Amino acid sequence: MPKNKRSRRSEPSTASAPYSLSSREKSHQQPSSDQPDLKSAGTNLIAPNTSLGQHFLKNPAVVTAIVAKAAIKPTDVVLEIGPGTGNMTVPLLQQSKHVVAIEYDNRMVREVLKRVEGTDQERKLQIIQGDAIKTRFPFFDVCVANVPYQISSALVFKLLSHRPMFRCAVMMFQEEFALRLTARPGEALYCRLSVNTQLLAKVDQLMKVGRNNFRPPPKVESRVVRIELRNPPPPVNFSEWDGMIRLLFNRKNKTLRSVLLTKPTIKMLDENRRTQKALNNGNNNMNNEFSMMEEEGVEKGAEQIIEEVVALEQWKDKRASKLDLDDFLSLLAEFNKRGIHFA
Ligand SMILES: C[S@@+](CC[C@H](N)C(=O)[O-])C[C@H]1O[C@@H](n2cnc3c(N)ncnc32)[C@H](O)[C@@H]1O
């Protein structure tokens, strides 16, 4: 989908011109008996606002496949982000106990409501109008989303930290974003997003979805992934972890030594060290790492400690682009042991 900036308009836009279907699109919309009827979606009456990522799924087979991958149980509460005109909302309602949908555009909110009005599904649907990133998520078992690609990253991080844990999230993303989620060390797409997501969740690639399955077609191909949070979560302070990963992936192909031994990084780590020390002194904890180091008269600055760590055999000449989760976890432990903290 387009890489436009997120639009944050105070007034959601209204349709300026009818959006009519080409005959090819019409033929795509013929539902089979076991597929959702997307014809009643009314998307042909509303001009899609592409700055809100409004590319609606028009192929009922894709909708059915996504909903099937979510393996929804009749007792489930489903969270849908960006229901649009409700193409997925209707089958989700049919299979679950309750659907909470968060939609930014009030034209879409009206459209979904219109679609279920007077049906058995009406009482099972709750729509929240607002920005999904700023909205507090309710309790849910499964999340299903075909979202504007400009909020993908914020949404993934929001889901990764959501509690209580949910069973899974089945989500459509721009192809490259989806591939970043599962990229492995040494692959070109391996990045901070890959490492952070894989630390906190298991991600599976489920299917590719071509541009022509959407109306209007986005500029890029898409993929559907399933995200399952690791339970229990890894025993790591995430802000500290992310502080280190963010630094190292700023220049992922440089050696750890050259990324960490820069003036601003040393300054920042020394400041963190002083803060940590003040906090620890405030807590009057005589057993902490600083008081032990002071007693031994071995207190060092961040620069010296970084030199020491990156000279260790396992880190010598290593680059973030080639390190895996276990490597990063032991690197962080190595620094923490010496009183260096990244947050
Ligand atoms: C790609 S369309 C998908 C519509 C529908 N789920 C489908 O598959 O046909 C994305 C939807 O997300 C909505 N949206 C955009 N930004 C949003 C945000 N920040 N929070 C919630 N919904 C948003 C758009 O208005 C649009 O209806």
Automatic annotation (TrEMBL):
GO molecular function, one term: rRNA (adenine-N6,N6-)-dimethyltransferase activity
Pfam families found in the cross-reference section: RrnaAD
Record-annotated Ribosomal RNA adenine methylase transferase N-terminal domain positions: 62-231
Annotated segments matching region Disordered: 1-45
The enzyme's E.C. designation: 2.1.1.-
Stored SUPFAM superfamilies: S-adenosyl-L-methionine-dependent methyltransferases (SSF53335)
PROSITE patterns per the UniProt record, alphabetical: RRNA_A_DIMETH, SAM_RNA_A_N6_MT
Keyword set, alphabetical order: Methyltransferase, RNA-binding, rRNA processing, S-adenosyl-L-methionine, Transferase
Composition bias, Polar residues: 12-22, 29-45
List of residues binding S-adenosyl-L-methionine: H55, L57, G82, E103, D131, N146
CDD domains per UniProt: AdoMet_MTases
Family stated for the protein in its record: Belongs to the class I-like SAM-binding methyltransferase superfamily. rRNA adenine N(6)-methyltransferase family.
PANTHER family: DIMETHYLADENOSINE TRANSFERASE (PTHR11727), DIMETHYLADENOSINE TRANSFERASE-RELATED (PTHR11727:SF7)
Protein name as annotated: rRNA adenine N(6)-methyltransferase
Organism: Cyclotella cryptica
